[in-house]
Design goal:
The structure is a single chain. By secondary structure, this protein is of the alpha+beta class. It has one domain: Hotdog Thioesterase (Thiol Ester Dehydrase, Chain A), CATH 3.10.129. Helix content is 16%, strand content 39%. The chain has a 6-stranded antiparallel beta sheet, covered by helices on one side. Strand 4 and strand 5 form a beta hairpin. The radius of gyration is 15 Å and the shape is globular. The relative contact order is 0.19.
């Protein structure tokens, strides 16, 4: 297992494990806990969306590891229920000086495609450890 390069408390709470983080690609494994399931006993859509969001952001950061990214937009399609241990594969499709265009797919234990997403991310500078926090959403509404 690899480190995400930054401390992301929510990712730690969910138990995501980074397996690949290089060359515009990421692979993250996730075994949902009972509290991450919906009323049908399958992975909650919000947990799946978080998994794809993180895998796309990680793919974008893999080529510019000293930068952070913030999600600008994300479109998600669910194909079938996500059961058991899940694998998200993120990929950087294109980047500009300030933006990353990405995709992610979630596969279940049997290798079946469960969900797919595309996302746009903005690259933002990271602050040195111990520096005052600034708003990386400069000009982006966070309401």
């Amino acid at each position: 297992m690899m480190r995400f390069g930054v401390d992301i408390p929510f990712v730690h709470h969910l138990g995501f494990e980074l397996m690949v983080f290089e060359g515009g690609a990421s692979v993250i494994e996730y075994t949902p806990k009972p509290e991450h399931l919906n009323s049908f006993g399958v992975t909650h859509g919000g947990a799946s969306m978080t998994l794809m969001d993180v895998s796309m952001a990680t793919a974008a950061r893999s080529i510019e590891q000293d930068m952070g990214v913030v999600t600008i937009e994300m479109k998600t399609s669910f194909m079938q229920a996500a059961r058991g241990t899940l694998t998200a594969k993120g990929r950087l499709l294109h980047r500009t000086a300030t933006m990353a265009f990405t995709e992610s797919s979630i596969f279940d234990e049997a290798g079946k495609l469960c969900a797919h997403a595309t996302g746009t991310f903005k690259y933002v500078k990271r602050l040195p450890t111990g520096a005052k926090t600034s708003n990386p959403f400069n000009g982006i509404s966070t309401d």
